[in-house]
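cron nightly-structures :: item 1 of 1
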Amino acid sequence: MRANTIVMIVLACVFGMLAVVLANFWLASQRNALARGNDVPSDTVVVAAVPLKFGDTLADNKLREIAWPAGAVPTGSFKTIKEALAGNGTRQALQAISTNEPVLASKITGAGQRATLSAVLTEGMKAVSIRVNDVLGVAGFVFPGDRVDILLTRTTNDSGVAKSFVDVLLQSVKVLAVDQVADESKDSPTVVKAVTVEVSTKDAQKLTLAAGAGQLSLALRQAAGNKGEATERVTVADLTGDTPEDVANRQAELDRQKAADAAAAEERKRANEKIDGLAQAVERVGSQIDELSKVKPAPVVVASTPEVREIVKYVQPEPPARATVGVFRGVKLETYDVPRQH
């Protein structure tokens, strides 16, 4: 047998024995760790046996007790199901609780209380509803539990010049409910008409005042982006990069056009008034003609005249006083004018 073959066989045996020793060592360490884990003091914690959503009533068949390390028991948890359901009346879930998630006092109502919006409010905070539409409400993609920035758009009149701008009114505001739904497990977008947010008393006053001063809209924040940020007012000039002089000139042109339109409208109004006056005059004349046409004329009495008869009488004319007499002298005719004798 060749020498290198013998060397390879020896090395294989050595590595195989080394692997067996290391495996036994690892298994022994795992058994020791498990034994030490069994010595750690443990406690029990009540968790959800089935998924719970906002408004679900707690019952024995929806809860169960599991072992929990004594040093890591969550604050507000219950040790037994009896303790979680203690008190007069039932308890309801205030937010979604997943299976095997600890049931905490902050996530359920008190004994006999209902799962209302007031029970979800943080101490010292207020719930305020603002009106939105399918665009201002981020197309229905705002859900209970999200955080949003509230923007205020308004227009002011400065020395006769209208100026529009947008301000960030409030930042990182928690959404409590959309319309009348406060279930944080809701995951399908819905176009809503109102959004209820959790704010301080002063911010509630701001929102109430801003609702009448301009138009409110929402800007959805990143789930983990709860920190405030520096903001600034955005005006119409920021949209195009125009200078204040450009904006003033454009506004002046708009004002001139508006004045010209107003003058034209006034001229049309005067012309319409004249036309209306003429129409009324024609209508009055027509009415008078109609009234006159309804009056019957009085009969005309014609006096009778005597019949005149013409009598023609022949009068013999008088004979002429002179007469013409012709006398032939030879072959020549001579005439003489002589008096007629009676």
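cron nightly-structures :: done
The chain has four domains: 1-39, 42-115, 120-240, 242-280.
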